[in-house]
Each structure stands twice: as C-alpha cells, then as structure tokens.
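Input chain follows. Return structure tokens only.
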Amino acid sequence: MAQGQKGKLNYRCPSCFMRDIDIDLFYDKENDEYYCLRCCFTGKEADVLRLNEQARYRYKLINKRVEFSEDNAPIKTTIYRGK
C-alpha cells in the first residue's frame, strides 16, 4: 500500500489491524506521532510498537495446525503447508 509521507519506518495501524484491515500509518513530524486516516488512532512510536506486539501475540499460531487431545494434555502443533 502506498503512503503519502513515510515516517522512519512503515508501520501498520494496530487498531485497524486487530480488525483485519491492513492500513499504513502516517507520520506527523510536528507532533512526533503516528496517525491513521481510517480510524482515530494516534500514538507515539513506542505505543505503535507495543500494540503491534500484542497483535503478533494474538496471531502467533496463524500458520500452524493445532491438534487437540485429552484434557490437561500439552497442545501439539504442526506447520500448515497448504494443499
């Protein structure tokens, strides 16, 4: 996705990304913060990194298959390779 003015790095909006929308953040040099055009998210770089880390935690098993077994047994995962 193209971005009008790039900041230091090209970050995704954590608020939109939690709703499965992939939108890049814009960087405001005057206020030294990132903002999203689609939602009302604004925040410093540390806030963006913290919230994106939460999204990574949520989707950490996205390309793995989870094998369920009896209660209190450890969860087994295998890598999903597709068809």
